[in-house]
Structure formats: structure tokens, C-alpha cells
């Protein structure tokens, strides 16, 4: 955890730290012979089993996915096709939907209390809805880009394409703290869709089939879940169809993942590599 006011300095320091890694020289032993550099501590790796798969709307440019009270919610992006929707897992059918007007490009969603929050990519605006009716209830402004959302049950937690997660007051959307995400000193940029999973923040990284498991207290990556191969190559349509949805249902202890324009939602079981 770092104070928001020091964010610029800390991010700068992180960038220099990353550079210095490349300057390390192999150590020499007593005979002056070069020896291998000390092993870098390795972040634990995880892989997955697909437990089940379900249809997913291939027109859905997925930006957020979550379970709430036994119902599956999804948000989609692109100007003109952005919306929030409740989806039936088994059929992939949209139960109800609320469109987001142009020129906004919808991004992540989260539900906290009676409110569903939806952020936008570059409008600097968050919209709120009654999650039960999808009726618009308000809006907030914020600085910078909006990518993903989740919650620890108290604060809203937001990604913005950097390696910094911003905590926000659900009543005002004001930033209350920032957590810089690092893996053994290396910054982890382009954190995207988020999910709070049993005290950890899970974040998929844009354009990668991998999910970082993040300790919210320190920002340290405690594990990497490698989802390489989850979407078969034949189902790939281009570079836009990236992993971008993680939903954890605490009631059933199930994890579902999907991606932009993917034909499937997958229930996965995470296991050690
Ligand atoms: Ca999520």
C-alpha cells in the first residue's frame, strides 16, 4: 500500500528498479571464475482444468464479469455496443440489458450494496445503476482511463491499464489509496479485468492468457495462473479476442472466465503447475 500523493515518485522508482535488473553481473567465486547469478525467486505458477464450458455471446466485447446473488453479470465495450447485462450461464442468453449511450466506451463493472458501478475507458465517467432494475441512478467523474473493477466489500478497486490499482470510496468515487502491483520488484502493467477471490485480487493482464494473483495489502504478485490454450486456436478470430473476464461465486466456490468475443465461458479449477 502506498499513499496516493506519493504515487508518481513510487512509480518512477519502480521504473528505475526494473532497469537496474539488466545491469546485474554474474558473481565471481574465490578462483575468479564467473558463477551463475543468484537465482531470482520464482513466483509460484498455476495451471487449470476446464470443469465445464458454456455458450458465450460472440458479439460481446467483454469488459467485466461477476457473480452476484447467484446471477451472472457482464459488461461490454466499444462505442455503440457498450452495455451491462445479466446472462444465463447455461444458455448464454441475455436476460436483460441496459445500453450505454455514445460516445462512451464501457469497461468494468462491480456491484456493491444496491449499486452496480460501470466505468468507461476514456470518458472519465462512472455510471451507477440499481443492480436489480438496471435503472440509472447517478454518475461520477474520475481522472485517467478506466479498465477493470472489483470490490473487497468495502471499497471499489479499479484498474486503469497501469500496474496501479486505485481504491475508491463507493459513495463519492474519490480515490482513497493506490496499490502498486509488482512481481519481485518488477512492475506488472496493463492489469485489466479484476476479481476479488478469497482475500486476493485476481487480475488478467491485457493481451495475455494469464491471471496475476495479487496480495491486496502489499501489491505483490503471489502467483501466476497460466491459461494458455484455454481458447482453442480455431476459436481465435484475431488479436482483439483476449481473455478479459473473471467471475468468482463465493456461494458455489466456482471460477468462470471468458474473453472478448469468445464463444465460450469456462468454469475452471486452478491447480499448481
Ligand atoms: Ca470480475
Mean pLDDT: 89
Radius of gyration: 20 Å
Portion in helices: under 10%
| Separation, N- and C-terminal Cα atoms | 29 Å
| Contiguous runs where pLDDT drops below 50 for at least 5 residues | 1-34
Tally of distinct domains: 1
Major sheet, described briefly?
8 strands, mixed
Kindly state the number of beta strands.
22
| CATH superfamily annotation | YVTN repeat-like/Quinoprotein amine dehydrogenase
The percentage of residues in β strands lies in over 45%
- What's the SSE pattern? HEEEEEEEEEEEEEEEEEEEEEE
The total of helices stands at 1
Biggest sheet strand order reads 16-17-18-19-1-22-21-20
The CATH architecture assignment turns out to be: 7 Propeller
Amino acid at each position: 500500500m502506498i499513499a496516493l500523493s506519493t504515487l508518481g515518485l513510487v512509480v518512477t522508482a519502480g521504473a528505475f528498479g526494473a532497469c537496474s535488473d539488466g545491469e546485474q553481473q554474474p558473481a565471481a567465486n574465490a578462483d575468479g571464475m564467473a558463477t551463475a547469478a543468484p537465482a531470482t525467486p520464482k513466483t509460484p505458477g498455476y495451471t487449470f482444468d476446464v470443469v465445464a464450458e458454456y455458450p458465450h455471446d460472440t458479439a460481446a466485447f467483454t469488459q467485466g464479469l461477476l457473480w452476484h446473488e447467484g446471477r451472472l453479470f457482464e459488461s461490454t465495450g466499444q462505442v455503440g455496443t457498450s452495455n451491462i447485462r445479466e446472462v444465463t450461464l447455461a444458455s448464454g442468453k441475455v436476460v436483460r440489458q441496459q445500453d450505454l449511450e455514445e460516445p462512451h466506451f464501457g469497461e468494468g463493472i462491480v456491484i456493491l450494496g444496491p449499486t452496480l458501478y460501470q466505468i468507461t475507458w476514456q470518458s472519465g465517467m462512472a455510471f451507477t445503476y440499481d443492480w436489480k432494475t438496471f435503472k440509472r441512478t447517478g454518475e461520477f467523474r474520475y481522472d485517467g482511463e478506466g479498465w477493470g473493477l472489483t470490490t473487497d466489500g468495502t471499497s471499489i478497486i479499479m484498474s486503469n491499464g497501469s500496474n496501479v490499482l486505485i481504491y475508491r470510496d463507493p459513495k463519492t468515487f474519490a480515490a482513497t489509496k493506490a496499490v502498486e502491483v509488482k512481481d519481485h520488484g518488477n512492475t506488472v502493467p496493463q492489469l485489466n479485468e479484476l476479481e476479488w477471490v478469497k482475500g486476493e485480487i485476481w487480475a488478467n493482464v491485457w493481451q495475455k492468457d494469464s491471471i496475476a494473483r495479487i496480495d491486496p495489502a502489499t501489491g505483490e504478485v503471489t502467483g501466476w495462473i497460466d491459461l494458455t490454450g484455454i481458447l482453442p486456436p480455431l476459436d481465435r478470430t484475431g488479436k482483439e479476442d483476449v481473455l478479459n473476464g473473471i467471475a468468482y461465486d463465493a456461494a458455489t466456490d466456482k471460477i468462470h472466465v471468458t474473453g472478448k468475443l469468445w464463444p465460450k465461458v469456462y468454469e475452471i479449477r486452478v491447480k499448481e503447475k
